[in-house]
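Worked example 3 (structure in, sequence out).
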């Protein structure tokens, strides 16, 4: 290989490749011999469709005229449900629920009226009714209003569904038993789904039972077992472990210092499968241990049996007690959907997110890195070193520190074509699971309470310093990049430290007070916990906002933002850009028409990473060609 500088290594990954030949896979569903899953394609402006795979193993798009996606609670979730040939889904374009039996000669028809309503979290109550969450955006309401409703698949539901529960600020994850009992998770402001939540059961006689409702405890993802007991996850012990409720009594099913789920940002199916054999119940699931996702079972006696270890894995509920759709990703292979037969361990692949074939000697395998903070807390992350055709690069490299979004989420050790776009060019990537991240227990997650903008910033700066001390990173070529909440951390690091020589914000928060005033219902009180109650703590919001300390930014900044972002309004990006530009610094802002909170269309994705690479080349002094391959 020619002796090219970092950033100019010849790469097989172009900016166009980040969208071309790549799809986004989400939830899967089993229905007898048919398998369904949701798939979105950047080449089709991010439209989401339902793919059906029949017994002959052929797959087809069965919703070519619709965009099967919901923005309920802003971040969406389960937008479809299947049972006995029936498929119902929410269409983002018409904002209606549609239902039909496409393989029995009955096409799709709208079953809800057009109006300011969103639906999601579909679960079948019987062969012709579904339970789901309905969110009303009536202009007369102070904020959107949630309710649990039942929809009839054979009518137009003129009342937009029969209400079975209302009054809570949020409803999540309805579950239906074989006797018609309905369970769900609910909670109220100022909590989030990983704060204080309740599990509630509606009995067939119309009475309600509270299954879980402890202050400061997150109880989530209820699912009915064949014997009529209710299983759910609770972090009462400090980790999300399994519990079982039956006839008014609750027992803990396992006792492990691992999280068996991630925070419930979206409406989704329970991330585990209930497996019954000879009257005993085991649980097919995954858990986070030493930063990795372990796939296996919780046995009837509460012990664990491990099947495999992945960078990340997610399990869907089982059909007929034996098969689940699973989502799997490793450090070297793209995310894929497969069907797992729990009785045999056999995996049948369905689809992969990328058909881009990366040569093995081009894939950067992440290293787990750990360091101690100034308060003695251990912090962890993943470092992806530069790698290209087996090239051994022992010298310090330019490194991008990546702050994940959320902030209550987690960066796994997972293959990413985006990471490869940089590492094959000689640029290292460090994904930091800063204080407040998920998958590491409640105490790690709650470190950030009252400290957002402080500990996350410190941990990202410390990650860069750690990599410099260990000889991996060049102290003169350190950048920080983040999207959404990660963009806030990136901007905060630029305005409060001198560690970085470049910053990249993708739809990042610049003004915390504006976020508290103008954000969506779902996150309208999120900052009460992360920062301080508002407006009582207004001074803290002003002091923590990067826009307040823009005069302390001393390096170039790139800002990329969607014009239709409902979470971080575009004017925050404009304010930050103009403030940095006014100081005479190298600042660049690009607004993408039609994009929301996250980029979905292929032209946007290609343009964004072309700009990021060009920006880094300008700052660090190399001449990139994002279109070039080896």
């Amino acid at each position: 290989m020619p002796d090219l500088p970092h950033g100019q290594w010849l790469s097989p990954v172009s900016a166009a490749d980040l969208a071309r030949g790549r799809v986004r896979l989400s939830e899967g569903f089993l229905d007898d011999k048919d398998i369904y899953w949701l798939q979105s394609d950047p080449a089709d402006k991010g439209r989401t469709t339902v793919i059906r795979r029949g017994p002959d193993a052929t797959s087809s798009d069965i919703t070519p005229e619709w965009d099967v996606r919901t923005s309920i609670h802003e971040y969406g979730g389960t937008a479809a449900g299947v049972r006995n040939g029936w498929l119902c889904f929410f269409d983002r374009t018409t904002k209606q629920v549609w239902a039909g039996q496409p393989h029995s000669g009955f096409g799709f028809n709208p079953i809800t009226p057009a109006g300011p309503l969103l639906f999601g979290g579909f679960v079948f109550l019987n062969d012709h009714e579904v339970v789901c969450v309905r969110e009303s955006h009536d202009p007369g309401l102070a904020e959107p209003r949630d309710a649990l409703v039942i929809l009839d698949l054979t009518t137009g539901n003129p009342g937009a569904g029969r209400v079975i529960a209302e009054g809570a600020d949020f409803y999540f994850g309805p579950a239906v038993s074989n006797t018609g009992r309905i369970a769900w998770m609910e909670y109220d402001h100022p909590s989030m789904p990983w704060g204080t939540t309740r599990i509630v059961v509606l009995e067939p006689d119309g009475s309600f039972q509270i299954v879980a409702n402890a202050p400061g405890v997150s109880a989530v993802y209820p699912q009915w077992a064949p014997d009529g007991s209710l299983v759910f996850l609770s972090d009462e012990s400090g980790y999300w472990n399994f519990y079982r409720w039956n006839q008014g009594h609750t027992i803990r099913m396992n006792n492990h210092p691992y999280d068996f789920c991630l925070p419930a940002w979206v409406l989704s199916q329970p991330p585990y499968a209930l497996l019954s054999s000879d009257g005993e119940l085991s649980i097919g699931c995954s858990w986070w241990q030493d930063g990795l996702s372990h796939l296996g079972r919780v046995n009837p006696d509460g012990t664990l049996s491990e099947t495999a270890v992945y960078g990340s894995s997610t399990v869907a509920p089982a059909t007929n007690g034996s098969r689940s759709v699973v989502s799997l990703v490793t450090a070297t292979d793209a995310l894929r959907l497969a069907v797992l037969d729990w009785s045999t361990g056999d995996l049948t692949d369905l689809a992969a997110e990328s058909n881009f074939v990366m040569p093995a000697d081009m894939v950067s395998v992440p290293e787990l890195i750990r360091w101690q903070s100034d308060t003695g807390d251990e912090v962890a992350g993943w470092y992806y070193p530069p790698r290209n055709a087996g090239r051994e690069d022992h010298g310090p490299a330019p490194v991008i520190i990546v702050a994940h979004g959320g902030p209550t989420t987690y960066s796994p050790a997972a293959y990413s074509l985006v990471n490869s776009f940089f590492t094959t060019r000689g640029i290292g990537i460090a994904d930091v699971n800063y204080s407040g991240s998920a998958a590491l227990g409640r105490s790690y997650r709650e470190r950030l309470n009252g400290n957002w903008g402080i500990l996350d910033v410190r941990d990202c700066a410390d990650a860069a310093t750690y990599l410099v001390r260990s000889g991996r990173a060049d102290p003169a070529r350190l950048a920080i990049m983040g999207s959404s909440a990660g963009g806030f951390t990136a901007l905060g690091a630029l305005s409060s430290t001198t560690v970085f020589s470049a910053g990249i914000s993708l739809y990042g928060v610049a003004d915390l007070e504006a976020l508290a005033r103008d954000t969506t219902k779902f996150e309208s009180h999120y900052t009460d916990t992360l920062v301080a109650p508002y407006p009582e703590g207004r001074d803290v919001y002003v002091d923590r906002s990067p826009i307040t300390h823009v005069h302390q930014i001393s390096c170039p900044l790139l800002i990329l933002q969607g014009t239709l972002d409902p979470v971080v309004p575009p004017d925050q990006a404009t304010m930050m850009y103009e403030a940095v530009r006014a100081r005479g610094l190298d600042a660049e802002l690009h607004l993408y028409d039609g994009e929301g909170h996250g980029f979905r269309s292929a032209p946007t994705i290609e343009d964004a990473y072309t700009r990021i690479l060009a920006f880094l080349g300008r700052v660090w002094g190399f001449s990139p060609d994002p279109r070039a391959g080896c």
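Notes: The chain has a mean pLDDT of 93. Residues 212 and 588 are 50 Å apart (CA to CA).
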